[in-house]
Amino acid sequence: MSVATPIRVSFRPSAGRDPFFDNAKFLAITLVVSGHLVEDLRDVPVAHAAYFYVYLFHMPLFIVLSGYLSRNFTFSSGKARKLIGTLAVPYVIFELLYALPRLVLYGRLDVSLLDPYYLTWFLMSLFLWRLSTPVWQQLRWPLVIAVALSLLSGTSRLPDELSMNRTLGLLPFYVLGLMLRPEHFAWLRRRRVRIAGAVTLVAGAAVALAVHTGVRTEWIRWRHANDAIGVDDLTGSLIRLAMLAAGALLVAAFLAVTPSRRTWYSGLGTATMYAYLLHGLVVKVAERFYGDWAATPAGVAAVAASGAGLAALLCTEPVRRVTRWAVEPRMGWAFTRLRRPG
Q1: 154, 46 contact by CB (below 8 A)
Q2: Residue 6 C-beta-side C-alpha neighbours within 13 Å
Q3: Confidence of residue 9 (pLDDT cuts 50, 70, 90)
Q4: Which whole-number Å values give the CA distances from 162 to 27, 34, 71, 281, in the listed order?
Q5: pLDDT digits (tens, 9 = 90+) for 18-35
Q6: What values do phi and psi take at 132, rounded to 5?
């Protein structure tokens, strides 16, 4: 990905933004895109290990950041309108857009607005999490309650509608983000903590390489109940608790090594929703062209590296101009003045 001056200037964050969070969001979306690109290559051991490792914390990272940036959410008219325009309407649009490849590739048109398909589950879950924000802000032990709900969600086969298993299973990461304060991130930027974070990430990768074949993939996807994965509720709850702890630790480590200064990709980090929603369309096409070359360690590395380039490309201004109608639709025409009881 070129880092020529025109790109840096076009995507310079506004003076009021903290580049640390934009850097973290861009690095996180790079992991998401690369993870989805190598997903179809999991028969290659190194790809399976990388996939397992990244999935332990890449979406928890996004969710923690989303929670932190949602701390001031209220039910005021402006917040409600933004919620509809940035999550609800794009969700409907991309549910329909992701139905088109299935129609072209498999001859099947299957649209269900309540049952998210592929990566649109995040929009559905974030919509519900954000609606619940005022409740979590008033509870005495919000994180404890969120963890309890997450563990309890694994004991029942919840309906696919509203992505209930993921919404409840990953809820603690959103609530954790709500509870964080600027001083917590300042602590992560201390030199000793940054060094510990780097060591933790390397150690996590080594552990993932050692255990990835012995852990069922469904644990890192948060999609199914314990019995559907083949364990009893006690065992499942302990595994889920371990996954929550591992995810939180790796998120903290990742944030610790994230640059806090302004970088060439800081501006791109302001548009990560574009990369998130659009990259799936590319992935679904690219997977059909993987050949024997991709099913090798070198091929996996090349595919993963292309994810970084794709993530950057999808965050650029030309792509944003063309696709803004879907990712950030202008919805002012749909709203009226707030109606209040007489």
Answers
A1: no
A2: 5
A3: very low
A4: 28, 26, 23, 22
A5: 899 999 999 999 999 999
A6: -85, -5
